[in-house]
């Protein structure tokens, strides 16, 4: 599968004289492959091309300091030893955030400093681009600019195993030395045929084009409605990987149980796969999902979100966004008069006993001072007080555990 493909390939593609520079949010299988390789390891800030260039420049300036120290004698200056190879490793779609890498900038940096580029397309192959050919197809990157493309057959292709795509010398080297090639059994004929059939549907039929379009539409539809309900999601609009943020790890178990009771299959994720206070539930959208399927999930999620308490977006912010959208379309609702809002005052026990004149004065003051962002609300409309409360609860849970 994808884990074995990464962990048994990166170690062959690098070595003790190499440097592997990895995005901090890369999958665990990439980390395992790096460790097996014996190469020096460095990381850069997630999706930051600027930090990637800074890391490359720093390591080129220092050289292979570990090898230099081994070569130098005691009392002598440490010589400069250049790297034999610098390998940059990123994902096409990040499995825990649904984000795409800034691939155009990474390719530019890779060419500038003579590095190699390895892209893990486990979640992007068969899902992104007009033809389903992955992140390069999606972002308009020349495939020849990426040295190694890795993918798995367990997701879009509905089979087992994984693959490495590269030039003939690279593939021949992997066939000779990779443990996945030497020790493991090859794909059975039925699994291989499943992969070939899926490829033929994607590349040569109208059905394949329709499925890719349906996948993109489903992802956009599902993500938009989650946001409208007040949930916080990560990732690109059309990414089929949609993480819904829980933040508090104590909410992982109830969220998982409530989803299971409603026959909804989703993956809940916590530490160490994510930072301790960034727990989430991950939804992976399929082209086979119908609007009825998605509406069923959304209806139950609206209820579950209230029970678990994970709607972190302010309702006022959401309503403001809807009003702005209506105004852009030229279909905004006419403003309500102050008198028409007096009826809402009867629900307030303090205001309802006031005279009509005093009520009107209160409403007018509120209208004049309205629209000011609360101190506990950030620019994205996320209720920071709610997140803070969850983290305080989490701190109590951790203290009890100790």
Automatic annotation (TrEMBL):
Gene3D superfamilies with a match to the protein in the record: Aspartate Aminotransferase, domain 1, Type I PLP-dependent aspartate aminotransferase-like (Major domain)
Region: Disordered, residue numbers: 319-349
Cofactor(s) needed for function: pyridoxal 5'-phosphate
Catalytic activity of the protein: L-serine + hexadecanoyl-CoA + H(+) = 3-oxosphinganine + CO2 + CoA
Compositionally biased residues, Basic and acidic residues: 319-329
Location of the Aminotransferase class I/classII large domain: 2-301
Domain of life: Eukaryota
PROSITE patterns xrefs: AA_TRANSFER_CLASS_2
UniProt keywords, alphabetically: Pyridoxal phosphate, Transferase
EC number: 2.3.1.50
InterPro entries: Aminotrans_II_pyridoxalP_BS, Aminotransferase_I/II_large, AON_synthase_class-II, PyrdxlP-dep_Trfase, PyrdxlP-dep_Trfase_major, PyrdxlP-dep_Trfase_small
Any Pfam family matching the protein: Aminotran_1_2
Alphabetized PANTHER family for the sequence: CLASS II AMINOTRANSFERASE/8-AMINO-7-OXONONANOATE SYNTHASE, LD36009P
Protein family according to the UniProt entry: Belongs to the class-II pyridoxal-phosphate-dependent aminotransferase family.
Name of the protein described by the UniProt record: serine C-palmitoyltransferase
Source species of the chain: Aduncisulcus paluster
Taxonomy of the source species: Eukaryota, Metamonada, Carpediemonas-like organisms, Aduncisulcus
């Amino acid at each position: 599968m994808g884990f074995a493909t990464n962990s048994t390939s990166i170690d062959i593609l690098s070595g003790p004289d190499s440097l592997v520079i990895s995005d901090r949010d890369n999958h665990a299988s990439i980390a395992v492959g790096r460790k097996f390789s014996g190469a020096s390891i460095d990381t850069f800030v997630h999706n930051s091309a600027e930090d990637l260039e800074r890391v490359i420049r720093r390591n080129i300036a220092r050289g292979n300091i570990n090898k230099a120290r081994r070569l130098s004698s005691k009392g002598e200056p440490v010589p400069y030893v250049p790297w034999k190879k610098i390998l940059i490793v990123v994902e096409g779609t990040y499995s825990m955030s649904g984000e795409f890498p800034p691939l155009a900038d990474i390719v530019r940096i890779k060419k500038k400093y003579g590095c190699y580029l390895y892209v893990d397309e486990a979640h992007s192959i068969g899902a992104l681009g007009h033809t389903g050919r992955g992140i390069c197809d999606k972002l308009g990157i020349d495939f020849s600019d990426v040295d190694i493309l890795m993918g798995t057959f367990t997701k879009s292709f509905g089979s087992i195993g994984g693959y490495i795509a590269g030039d003939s010398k690279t593939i021949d080297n992997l066939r000779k030395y990779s443990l996945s090639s030497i020790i493991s059994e090859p794909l059975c004929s039925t699994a291989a045929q499943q992969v070939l059939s899926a490829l033929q549907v994607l590349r040569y039929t109208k059905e394949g084009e329709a499925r890719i379009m349906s996948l993109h539409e489903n992802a956009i539809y599902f993500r938009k409605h989650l946001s409208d309900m007040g949930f916080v999601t990560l990732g690109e609009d059309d990414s089929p990987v949609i993480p819904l943020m829980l933040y508090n790890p104590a909410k992982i178990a109830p969220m998982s149980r409530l989803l299971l009771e409603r026959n909804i299959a989703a993956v809940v994720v916590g530490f160490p796969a994510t930072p301790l206070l960034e727990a989430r539930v991950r939804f992976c959208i399929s082209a086979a999902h119908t609007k009825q399927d998605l509406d069923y999930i959304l209806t139950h999620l609206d209820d579950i979100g209230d029970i678990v308490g994970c709607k972190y977006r302010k309702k006022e912010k959401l309503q403001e966004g809807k009003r702005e959208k209506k105004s852009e379309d030229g279909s905004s609702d006419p403003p309500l008069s102050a008198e028409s809002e007096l009826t809402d005052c009867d629900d307030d026990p303090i205001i309802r006993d006031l005279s009509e004149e005093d009520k009107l004065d209160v409403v007018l003051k509120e209208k004049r001072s309205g629209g000011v962002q609360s101190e506990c609300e950030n620019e994205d409309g996320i209720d920071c007080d709610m997140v803070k409360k969850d983290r305080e609860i989490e701190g109590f849970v951790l203290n009890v555990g100790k």
